[in-house]
Design goal:
By secondary structure, the protein is α+β, with helices and mostly antiparallel strands. The protein contains 9 helices and 12 strands. The protein folds into 3 domains: about 45 residues, Factor Xa Inhibitor, CATH 4.10.410; about 120 residues, Mago nashi (Mago nashi protein, 2-Layer Sandwich), CATH 3.30.1560.10; about 120 residues, Mago nashi (Mago nashi protein). The longest helix has 17 residues.
């Protein structure tokens, strides 16, 4: 079949070809299709409007106008970032026999790993972060402001050469890493704080071995007038009750959370100062006795506390008595 040529045919064909394209509802006389040679600009930081420098656009209408920046798909239409892990590393130059590095790392499953600087015990401390704390941490560690800093071509601020701090984010788009030594940008500070808070909350870094409270007094030979409460680093709670007719040691295992919270009380520096004092913190009677004994990597810290009161001493009594009530 032979097509008939007509001066009206070309306009009709053009109209039909354009019928499938939807033009913007509100026309903008300043916007028009851009040829590749005339397309200037980037969508970096401009995904909802015009390029910051140039003549191309990055909004939802740019395809209809034909003026999209060449990197719109890569930058603005990329799939959302998926958090994999975040790590901060700190180090410096020091003698070979001294540990001068530390790390705090958090992964998407909520596993927190901490390597402490100058830790005499060495090794990596691990803990499982709960869902609420994990969600909050991820929101801070993947903030747009922090991501811009991590992706910068240069360190976020001038840094010395003898110490070093870096932050590394791994997500679905790859690795984002830079040096942040001595930088005080709010996004960097927020990342430091959220990781430090997780470390303080979940990681028990004390070299705690055991704590024992002993109470006793003079009484007839057939009567049991002594008692003790002992907590070990592995969570074992040993209790010897006063006047327990059945005798023996009652044992239980406390949860990691209760162990962590109790050890914080038992290793309070103000309490250790009391335990290491040459004299008891108060004048004690001679017919009854109460002592507190902390063992850690530094040795033994022990003193009599009979009828003594104070915030640190009372906190120990309350913490251990609460464990006994809860578990035994």
């Amino acid at each position: 079949m032979k097509l008939l040529s007509s001066p009206l045919l070309l306009p009709l064909l053009l109209a039909a070809a354009c019928a499938g394209q939807t033009a913007p509802e509100t026309g903008d006389p300043d916007r028009a299709p851009l040829g590749k040679a005339d397309n200037i600009g980037t969508c970096e930081g401009a995904c909802d409007g015009p390029a910051l420098l140039g003549n191309c656009w990055c909004d939802d209408l740019c395809e209809a106008y034909g003026d999209c920046c060449e990197d719109k798909v890569e930058i603005c239409d990329a799939p959302p970032s998926t958090f994999d892990s975040f790590e901060t590393f700190r180090g410096g130059f020091c003698p070979p026999d001294i540990d001068c590095t530390s790390t705090i790392a958090l992964d998407s499953a909520g596993l927190l790993k901490v390597d402490l600087m100058g830790d005499p015990n060495g090794g990596i401390y691990e803990a499982q972060v709960d869902d609420s704390d994990l969600a909050h941490a991820i929101s801070v560690l993947t903030s747009d402001d922090l991501l811009v800093i991590l992706d910068g071509q240069n360190p976020a601020c001038p840094a010395p050469t003898d110490v070093f701090e870096s932050m590394t984010l791994h997500d679905g788009n790859g690795e984002h890493r830079t040096s942040v030594t001595f930088c005080d940008d709010p996004a960097i500070q927020a990342a430091r704080e959220v990781l430090s808070d997780l470390k303080d909350k979940y990681i028990q870094t004390s070299d705690f071995e055991s704590f024992r409270v002993f109470r006793g007094g003079f009484c007839p030979p057939a009567v049991d007038c002594s008692s003790s409460i002992e907590l070990l680093a592995d969570g074992t709670l040993n209790v010897d009750r006063m006047n327990d007719l059945q005798g023996g040691i009652h044992t239980a295992t406390v949860t990691d959370i209760d162990l962590r919270d109790t050890i914080k009380v038992l290793t309070d520096p103000a309490l250790i100062e009391i335990l290491d004092a040459d004299e008891p913190p108060c004048v004690a009677p001679t017919d009854v006795f109460e002592s507190m004994n902390l063992k850690d990597s530094a040795g033994e810290h022990r003193v009599g506390v009979t009828f003594c009161h104070g915030p640190e001493i009372d906190a120990v009594r309350d913490a251990l008595d609460s464990l006994v009530s809860k578990y035994l």
